[in-house]
Amino acid sequence: MAISKNHDSEMSVEERLKAVYKLQTMLSEIDRIKTLRGELPLEVQDLEDEIAGLETRINNYAHDIEDLQKSVVNKKNEIEESKALIVKYTAQQDNVKNNREFDFLTKEIEFQNLEIELSEKRIREYTSSEASKKDESERASALLADRKIDLANKKGELNEIIEETRNDEEVLRDQVKDVETNIEPRLLQAFKRIRKNARNGLAVVTIQRDACGGCFNKIPPQRQLDVKLRKKVIVCEYCGRIMIDPDLALEA
Questions:
Q1: Angle at 28 between CA 25 and CA 33, to 5 degrees
Q2: Which pLDDT band holds residue 189 (cuts at 50, 70, 90)?
Q3: End-to-end alpha-carbon separation of the chain, Å?
Q4: Number of CB atoms found within 10 A of residue 8's CB
Q5: Tens-digit pLDDT profile for residues 116-136
Q6: CATH match for 40-167 among 3.40.50.10240, 2.40.30.10, 3.40.50.720, 1.10.287.1490
Q7: Are 76 and 123 in contact (CB under 8 A)?
Q8: Which pLDDT belongs to residue 4?
Q9: Partners of 3 in beta bridges
Q10: d(Cα 111, Cα 88) in Å, to the nearest integer?
Q11: pLDDT (tens digit, 9 = 90+) per residue, 12-69?
């Protein structure tokens, strides 16, 4: 497969091949700089996400604890109300006119005693749940403190690497922009598409030992000759990478 030449371009095929190879070497160097940073950017992002999640969880615990405390207070108030009603109904039993009224008040007193027992049970449940929430909140807070320390360390490592490589990367990116302006849009678009799909980011490779330098499949002699002639842009029929001969790579 060949990428056709743009007749409007004043650059020869050889010059265009040199340009895309030069662009490839610059982008490969930027890739190398990114590799130096390793997984640190992702680790920093993961830690930031985890910290945000822990902070949300701790806030939720605080709201839950506050609600449980309010529920305990409400139940204690209900107990006092029930006790007051028991006192009231007990006093009324002394002045009843018949057994039916006495039985009615007795049942009301029993009901209020059951209400007190139920409220006391709920208080125990709320208190137990509150203690559990406090323990969970304390563990989350301890983990949060550890993660913040980890984040500070990771950010420090990342910033140090970024600072060491910042100037080199900025210079390379400026050079990349300059080189891209000298490559016809159609070829540049093809280059970017190939590079995006290439596992190692190599869109331009040399022929090495009669094979593609990207996928290592054997290249037929006639196609190798076409590559050496530099009359058209040749791509590997297996992986789609642009192929150049090693001598041109040395000249680029």
A1: 130
A2: very high
A3: 23
A4: 6
A5: 999 999 999 999 999 999 999
A6: 1.10.287.1490
A7: yes
A8: 43
A9: 233
A10: 13
A11: 899 999 999 999 999 999 988 888 788 888 899 999 999 999 999 999 999 999 999 9
Return the structure tokens found at 68.
Answer: 């449980």
The whole-angstrom separation of Cα 200 and Cα 21 is 15
Q: Is the pLDDT of residue 8 over 60?
A: no
CA distance 247 to 252: 9
The whole-angstrom separation of Cα 3 and Cα 66 is 70
Torsion angle of alpha carbons 40, 169, 192, 200, nearest 10°?
-50
Q: State mean pLDDT over 167-183.
A: 91
| pLDDT band for position 252 (cuts 50, 70, 90) | low
Domain ranges of the chain: 2-37+180-251, 40-167
In a 3-state reduction of DSSP, which class is residue 177? Answer: helix
DSSP β-bridge partners for residue 218: 211
Alpha helices in 94-206 (DSSP H): 99-181, 185-197
Read off the pLDDT band of 162 (50, 70, 90). Answer: confident
| Number of C-beta neighbours around residue 236 at 10 A | 23
Q: What is the percent of the chain with per-residue pLDDT over 90, rounded to a whole number?
A: 76
Whole-angstrom Cα distance, residue 186 to residue 182?
A: 12
Q: Is 199 helix (H, G, I), strand (E, B) or coil?
A: coil
* 207 touches 224 (CB < 8 A): yes
What single letter denotes the amino acid at residue 95? N
Q: Give the dihedral of Cα atoms 120, 121, 122, 127; nearest 10 deg.
A: 90
